[in-house]
Amino acid sequence: MKTSIATVSISGDLPEKLQAIAKAGFTGVEIFENDLLVHDASPKEVGRMVRDHGLEISLFQPFRDFEGMPEPYRSRGFDRAERKFDIMGELGTDLMLVCSNVSPVSLGGVDRAADDFRALGERAARRGLKVGYEALAWGRHIHDHRDAWEIVRRADHPQIGLILDSFHTLSRRIDVGSIRAIPGDKIFFVQLADAPKIDMDLLYWSRHFRNMPGEGDLPLVDFMSAIAATGYQGPLSLEIFNDQFRSGSARLIAEDGHRSLLNLMDQVRRSEPDLRIAVPAAPARTTVKGVEFVEFTASEEEAADLVALLSTLGFARTAQHRNRKVALYQQGDIRIVINTEGEGLAGSSYSIHGVNAYAFGLRVPDAARAVERATAMGAEAFAEPRRPGEVAVPAIVATGGEIIYFIDGSEALDRIWPTEFEPVAAGNAAAGLTHIDHLAQTTRYDEMPSLLLFYTSIFDLDRSGMVDVADPAGLVRSQAVQNPSGGLRITINGADNRKTFAGHFLTEGFGAGIQHIAFSTDDIFATVTALKTCGLEPLPISRNYYDDLEARLGLLPDFVERLRENSLLYDRDGEGEYFQLYSRTFGEGFFFEIVERRNGYQGYGATNAMFRIAAQKRLATPAGLPRQ
């Protein structure tokens, strides 16, 4: 599969873009004319630089306002094309994109446009070049790929073909089935972009809100399935106009782009098993049965503070690693690992971020295939030297830097806890916590799409809708990924203001990470009673919250009073109910949550987030740092 990306899609100057594109694994690049014009090197030197990176120039673009022009514009158009052909010759590429005319002086007429392209094809043929025609969604006369194809068909010239762009077709809700009737050899190039569903001007939507396949809401699998049915074997290229991408990390955006193409074509291959699709075979997305453990790294002194907090939640130390300074704390099916080794990845993570949940393990059907799927989607496999008697646990590095381990039912992995850990006598302070309900990661807002794509391309997860969370100091955006069984739920919170509670965590913790862990209980009120015995000081919630809750949801006063007495937050969705209890914060803003879901509730209590944040900020010291 040939993969390509337009230089306009990522940030940096041209050399920086090319380096990131090549390192991400692309085979080609679209040279966007503006990137060439602002670079201080000749087209010939640029072409050499591209090839030195192991890339080919798959397309030169864009050429505008060509077809259907009256004189003298028509003659000038051909003169401009000849100049662009000169540049292409120096660059070393043979394909130019012509987008449909938007000029107010342009003339309509399919035959007129076809005549112009036939004449342009003759000029291109003399130089050994090709021209692809693309219908812009906002084109003056041509804004539908079906009309663009009719012009190409009538031009009837071997050097003239069609360029298809997913955004231009899908933004207008054009039937993608019409693509299947187009001969594959007349499709010269395919450009791909996703986008969130937003009702706005097409041009503005296109120029600012495109994103990678799988990061938006457009039906790209249907679009690419139709193209695959034509027999098209050419490059698949990304053309992404996005303000955040153009100011973000070129490396990260390029890696995301390559992953998005691999994931998209894997989905197409599975949806169209009878088609011959040139994409490397990969295992299906991994099903996750549950979170096996979460591992913290800490110094011995700070580990004592973390253990003290865990003890107020009913956790007890149940085992000690046989070879390392690693302790296991359990309750129900929840395992919390605290690593105070001070070396290896745990030590490195602590030296940068302080106490943090730097790794977690997932229970999966087949650990080896989980790693195979992840690496096929561009993730990095992870392994550390093992000591005698230790099990090599398959693992990968997540986009956010965390390590994800995979545990399955194989003999070695299934017995890793008794194999590596020596049991110790544990108290009986359990509070009815059963399993990890969800993990909550905090990252910069512009890196949210990257995390979402990482998880949904590797694991069998679905995205929820984006939610805006009102922090007193600004807006935080939140989106969740989860599987139908609830075995894995992850909320991803994006902050771009360091004054928000989430932003403070990012700033003081020197980067993204897991900011809170939610434990599940089958009886929140019994759990609260037990936690009082354990000494938990829950996060105190304003009385005003409960007064509003009673009026807003029509709850009985006695029930609301019971919630208030226990510092519980409450949400309802149809018949589903959700109860939340929060610990006070630890370190630079980490905290635990306890939840109970009733009657199939699927959300995360988003309406309560602003009250939780306000309560956390009330407990902050004058310097703005959360109290331990």
| Proportion of strand residues | 15-25%
The CATH topology of the largest domain = TIM Barrel
Helix and strand composition category: alpha/beta
In the CATH scheme, the class of the largest domain would be Alpha Beta
Q: Mind telling me the C-alpha Rg?
A: 28 Å
Query: How would you describe the shape?
Result: elongated
Number of helices: 21
Q: N-to-C terminal Cα separation, in Å?
A: 53 Å
Give the strand line-up of the largest sheet: 14-15-16-13-9-12-11-10-17
Indicate the low-confidence ranges by residue numbers. Answer: 622-628
Count of structural domains: 3
In short:
With 628 residues, the protein is α/β, with parallel strands linked by helices. Helices cover 35% and strands 25% of the residues. It contains 21 helices and 26 strands.
Describe this structure in words.
With 628 residues, this protein is α/β, with parallel strands linked by helices. The protein has 3 domains: 3-271, Alpha-Beta Barrel (TIM Barrel); 290-423, Roll (2,3-Dihydroxybiphenyl 1,2-Dioxygenase, domain 1); 433-618, 2,3-Dihydroxybiphenyl 1,2-Dioxygenase, domain 1 (Roll), CATH 3.10.180.10. The strands form 3 sheets. It has a 9-stranded mixed sheet with strand order 14-15-16-13-9-12-11-10-17. The longest helix is centred in the middle third of the chain and has 22 residues, at 250-271.
